[in-house]
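It is worth pausing here to work through a concrete case rather than discussing structure prediction in the abstract. The textbook approach is simple: state the sequence, then state the predicted structure, then interpret. We follow exactly that order.
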Amino acid sequence: MSDGTNPQDWVDVADVLARYGQALDDKDWAMLSSCFVPDATFDYAGSGRYNNYADFEELARVTLGRYSSTQHLVGSIRITIDGDIGEAHCYAQAAHVMDGIGDMRITGTSYYDTLRRTPDGWRIVSRRLVRLWGDGPQR
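Step two, the predicted structure:
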């Protein structure tokens, strides 16, 4: 158990948040799954609600399949930890390049996460995405 003063917990939670963005950009589904518990819940503004990781991964595969390249940058991370439960809020900026035509969509979002320490490390148990702004083609 941590009382929130262990700096390694903060580093480990921040790593999960960064790993998420890198996994999306690399379309590395094994890495992406390492960020979540299997029964994680997702509330993704405009994309729906999902009650398990498998359904969310299918959404990510279909959505990212439309793009030749993406880059998810995560920053302004705030984390609080109470024992084996963590809360995190971060901003993300994501660029999505359309396959073959070069159009780019850039969005700014906030992620609100609840995480849990598991035997395999910190994992997201619920994630809410709030779209803050965006430009480019809506596809």
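Step three, interpretation. The chain has one domain: 7-135. Residues 25 and 62 are 13 Å apart (CA to CA).
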